[in-house]
Amino acid sequence: MATYYVVSSPDPNPGIPHNPNWPRVLKLSFEAEEVHLLQGKGHGLGGAFYSFNEFCVSKWEDFFEGWDSDWLVEALSEHESLTLLDEEEFVRTLNRHASVETRES
Q1: Among candidates 102, 104, 87, 105, which has minimal Cα distance to 8?
Q2: 7 exposed, middle or buried (CB, 10 Å; 0-12, 13-18, 19+)?
Q3: Beta partners for residue 39, in sequence order
């Protein structure tokens, strides 16, 4: 099992049970060196899973649009590879912008 930091967008349509676009969730684990991108809910839920070595923020610009995530994009884009991302620094940035939520997977 690994611990994942979870960052979620707000859901602009919480009353809609099936939506392919919202909410958007990023789960990031330094232990597993993985990034999970999840979008939608109900039958509209989809996702992508990447290792730190293969994840490229610029290829996911659409995923980060429409919610207050500029700080997140900046934090994830600082280095050529997420393998160079410092966990303590990321958590400090996360704490400044969102409530820190973790999940075990």
Answers
A1: 102
A2: buried
A3: 24, 46
